[in-house]
Amino acid sequence: MKCKVCRGHAVVDIRRHNAAFCTDHFTEHIHNQVAKAIKEFHMFGPDARLLIAVSGGKDSLALWDILLQLGYDVTGFYLDLGIGSYSTRSKEATIAFAEERDAKLIVRSLAEEHGFTVPELASLTNRVPCSGCGLNKRYEFNRAALEEGFDILVTGHNLDDEVATLFGNVLHWNTDMLARQGPVLEERVLGEGDRRRMALVRKVKPLVRVAERETAAYAVVRGIDYIVEECPMVEGNVQHKYKEAIAMLEESSPGTKHQMYFGFLKKAASRFADETDAANLVGCANCGSPTIAPEAGSDRVCSFCRMQSLAQRRRDDGYRARPVRVRKRR
Amino acid sequence: MRLRNPDRIIEVSGPRTVPDLLRSLEIVPEAVLVIRDATLLTRDEELEEHDELEVRPVLSGGAGGPGS
Fold this sequence. Notes:
The structure holds two protein chains of two kinds. By secondary structure, chain A is α/β, with parallel strands linked by helices.
């Protein structure tokens, strides 16, 4: 195949764009797609202070590279989840990436901040690892952004991530989630007068126009040494099953993913706007973070604090967390 | 043909393209990158018997969710 732009030897073909690109023009294409998403969804201006959540995987490192290349003031935030040697390797990859580019990086550890790793939380609370992990990451990313004074939290969710989430939310008709599924989640402020404070930082997903295969290809052509292996706790994860099913549809009908996601944003998202409880946010009685206002008589404690206190009670009762099972998916 | 990640050796007969290889492995092309000598291959690339290839999965699982 030949590059659509220069007719040189192509290394990546993108069927939904009916195009192939050489290394240089593929890099330019991806930069353009990210710049287009930032502009189209009014994500941030040229002077914003950005905090990007990085895992050591392809999507977040690729996006960090892209934003640096586009000239943004972007700092990395790595949260050590304590998932055995997988976390060790992903932290090393992230630090190496930052050092090579002289990029700013903040590193925190879940166990040091709150006393529990992701495997310990999953085991002590009998919760699916990915669910507890997601809750902890959302909480810590937001806390770090607020404490360190950033305007915007950036995440590496790509088109496949968003389509798989949308697919799952439609399968189960999670209308509350559909109301909040977009490339931008606006900031939230709690309290009034002197007690008015930022509670949730604005969150954006600049990779929504880029498919997962393309972020991986970008990482390869840019020589980004990301963690190729999958998290050992993800086995059987439903999000992954959705992605495989959607990849088959995309294969037989290129453009399906783009059509599903951007069609949803254009034609359906606004119809779910009234379905969310997000309007009823109050501060958690324990940590102050926003949580949905409880029904009368129940405690006003956020789901993060509830999970932490359950894990602490179990640990105090002598319940011991099982060790991490490290098993490859394929 | 030698494949990496996971490592295995497969027998091939005659020239074949990237989609031919992936079909025989029952892999959806949209879910992987095919890499030869640190270079990405497009779908029309012909593969040779002595090629050493990496078929790298690109789809990851995870917590998902709109706020994650």
